[in-house]
Design a protein that fits this description.
Blueprint: H1 13-27, E1 29-31, H2 32-39, H3 43-55, E2 59-62, E3 65-68, H4 78-82, H5 86-99, E4 107-110, H6 114-122, E5 129-132, H7 135-141, E6 148-151, E7 155-157, E8 162-164, H8 166-173, E9 177-182, E10 186-188, E11 192-195, H9 198-209, E12 211-217, E13 229-232, E14 239-243, H10 248-256, E15 261-264
Parallel strand pairs: 4-5, 4-9, 5-6, 9-12, 12-14, 14-15
Antiparallel strand pairs: 1-3, 2-3, 7-8, 10-11, 11-13
Helix pairs in contact: 2-3, 5-6, 8-9
Keywords: Transcription, Transcription regulation, Transferase
Domain HTH deoR-type: 13-68
GO molecular function, one term: transferase activity
Amino acid sequence: MSSSSSSMKSDTTVDRRAQIQTLLNEQGVVNSQELAERFEVSLMTIYRDLDYLQEQGVAKRQHGGAVSADRFISPLKRSMRESQNVNAKRIIGRWAAANLINTIDDSLVIDSGTTTLEFVRALPDAAINVMVNSLDALSVLAAHKNTNVYALGGELRKDVMAFEGAITTDNLRQCHFSKAFISADGIDIEAGLTTTNEQRARLTRLMAEHAQEVYLLADCSKYGKRSFRTFFHFDRITAIISESGVPELYKQHFRQHDIRLIEVNDNDPDKK
């Protein structure tokens, strides 16, 4: 929700709370100060509104605002993930490939995920080292003539078509990278970066530990959501790349904690 949103004076408390609930359903997160400005009421009034919505099981209060109580992410079928927010994922992947890659001497490790797959599709065919654990990513990179392509190997999770497990992590521990490109199922101020699977959490965390720089590629639907397992918090991230429209509550949190956020859009001149 932008701070430039027009005022929406409500005639009754019930009406205002209904509108706040609608915003929570649409955005997943609301900012207290923005709500006060939007409805032209005091912060204390908004706090009471959010407390009420929390009592009703609609919202969960957190610093600076509230998030939707219905924000817990359960595992989705692969086909469902692939069909969600496709354009935003493509914009993010293309921007990252065009602006974050050193085509002379980079060594990359790339997490499995639908946004990171768009990043793989946009990678230049350059003489760099690229390690992936996704069969879809391997299929894309097989067409490269110059890229040195490596697969982590291990146990194949057929629901996501990616390698995970003890063999995968053992192989990863022997490698070192200039950059890791990772994804998350949920981004939450309190929970950090989360995913639906314990093995996936361990693997993504290990990728970050073995890379000099770590880039999170995540579309705006991930904000205000949390899943089963936290794999780490924001302080391990070099930068977060999202499309325009990151909730203001998260922008404020990132600014306060010196977390670099890059918002890109379809009109970006550097888009590939």
